[in-house]
């Protein structure tokens, strides 16, 4: 977490710009596609944290290069390939490339790999002093990447090849934004659907602000220390609507394994979906299908038990490496939105969702009013 917080000021810049863009939309008196703006925000932050620069989404207020749209359109195919045996993936991809729209989307997504490679090559030309000043994730990876002699620039044993650094950066772009955007949409959506929870959340922010406990923008430590109910709402939104809703598969070991009395032979893949685990009434109570942030504030003992069943960031050795990045973003921007704006849904329809690994929502259209 300490490495993430080195770049907290970059997240602050994105948060400030998001508030400005939402205020502009409010001033125009129009309904706001808040879900879309949260996606642009998440991509902008990833650009800063990975590469030390913005992708320009918030600055322009648009999907620059149709990248966000292309990632979403490519999701079903990438999800299919992820769950398909490896010997079939090439055939599936070749068939998919015969479809013009799919080919266009993959070219747009592939452009991020090219961009990551170009940035990395420029960084490799930095002087030692220039490299030491950088605190983004790419700089951290490059400090551990091999040069042609299989050593890092400092002469230590390498952890990564340069090719692996490019792929890690690409994976960060592809996975780092959607996980944050889905969680933020769930946070605002369930609060709007539960006015009592919304009132308590806003009251907590206003009380902490009036006591001088919150900066502008709110820091991560301030949010986690002084806004416990906001934290409970964030957890509950992630529990009831996990950002990742696909089987987290593992391979049974050579000797096989017995799970809940069922023997699983060696080599079989066994998985469990966070969307089911996180609705388990044995763990979360008979109201497991209800948005109830208070469950996280009842007792420390119960919270520990429930957190063991929160799998939306994975678990154990396969926990998402970007978990701390995502949590920092969410804990900072979620209360900032409630601090600046009163909001309610602009329609009575439930949101629309599409699950392609990331369980993404659409139609989070809201009416915003700036708080005075």
TrEMBL record:
GO molecular function, one term: methyltransferase activity
InterPro entries assigned to the protein according to its UniProt record, in alphabetical order: Cyt_P450 (IPR001128), Cyt_P450_CS (IPR017972), Cyt_P450_E_grp-I (IPR002401), Cyt_P450_sf (IPR036396), Cytochrome_P450_monoxygenase (IPR050121)
Annotated binding of heme, by residue: 320
Any GO BP: methylation
Keywords per UniProt: Heme, Iron, Metal-binding, Methyltransferase, Monooxygenase, Oxidoreductase, Transferase
Entries under PROSITE patterns matching the protein: CYTOCHROME_P450 (PS00086)
Known cofactor(s): heme
Keyword Iron: yes
CDD domains for this protein: CYP57A1-like
SUPFAM superfamilies in the record: Cytochrome P450
Any single Pfam family the record assigns to this protein: p450
Family, per entry: Belongs to the cytochrome P450 family.
Full protein name: Pisatin demethylase
Organism: Pyrenophora seminiperda CCB06
Biological classification of the source: Eukaryota, Fungi, Dikarya, Ascomycota, Pezizomycotina
């Amino acid at each position: 977490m300490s490495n993430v917080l080195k770049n907290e000021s970059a997240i602050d810049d994105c948060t400030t710009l998001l508030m400005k863009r939402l205020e502009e939309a409010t001033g125009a008196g129009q309904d706001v596609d808040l879900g879309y703006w949260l996606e642009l925000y998440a991509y902008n932050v990833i650009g800063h944290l990975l590469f030390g620069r913005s992708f320009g989404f918030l600055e322009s207020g648009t999907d620059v290069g149709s990248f966000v749209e292309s990632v979403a359109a490519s999701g079903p195919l990438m999800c299919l390939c992820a769950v398909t045996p490896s010997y079939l993936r090439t055939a599936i991809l070749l068939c998919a490339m015969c479809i013009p729209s799919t080919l266009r989307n993959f070219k747009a997504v592939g452009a991020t790999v090219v961009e990551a490679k170009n940035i990395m090559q420029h960084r490799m030309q930095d002087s030692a002093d220039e490299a030491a000043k950088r605190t983004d994730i790419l700089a951290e990876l490059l400090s551990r990447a091999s040069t042609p002699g299989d050593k890092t620039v400092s002469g230590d044993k390498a952890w990564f090849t340069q090719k692996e650094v490019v792929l890690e950066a690409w994976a960060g772009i592809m996975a780092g934004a959607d996980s944050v955007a889905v969680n933020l949409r769930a946070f605002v959506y369930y609060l709007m659907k539960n006015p009592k929870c919304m009132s308590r959340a806003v009251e907590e922010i206003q009380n902490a602000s009036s006591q001088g406990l919150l900066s502008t923008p709110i820091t991560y430590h301030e949010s986690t220390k002084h806004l416990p109910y906001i934290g409970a709402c964030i957890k509950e939104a992630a529990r009831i609507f996990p950002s990742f809703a696909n089987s987290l598969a593992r391979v049974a070991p050579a000797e096989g394994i017995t799970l809940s009395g069922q023997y699983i032979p060696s080599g079989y893949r066994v998985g469990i979906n966070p969307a089911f685990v996180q609705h388990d009434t044995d763990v979360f109570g008979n109201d497991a299908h209800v948005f109830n942030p208070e469950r996280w504030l009842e007792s420390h003992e119960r919270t520990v038990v429930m957190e063991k069943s929160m799998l939306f960031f994975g678990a154990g050795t396969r926990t998402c490496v970007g978990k701390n990045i995502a949590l920092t973003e969410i804990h900072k921007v979620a209360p900032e939105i409630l601090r600046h704006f009163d909001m309610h849904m602009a329609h009575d329809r439930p949101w629309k969702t599409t699950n392609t690994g990331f369980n993404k929502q659409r139609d989070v259209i809201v009416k915003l009013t700036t708080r005075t």
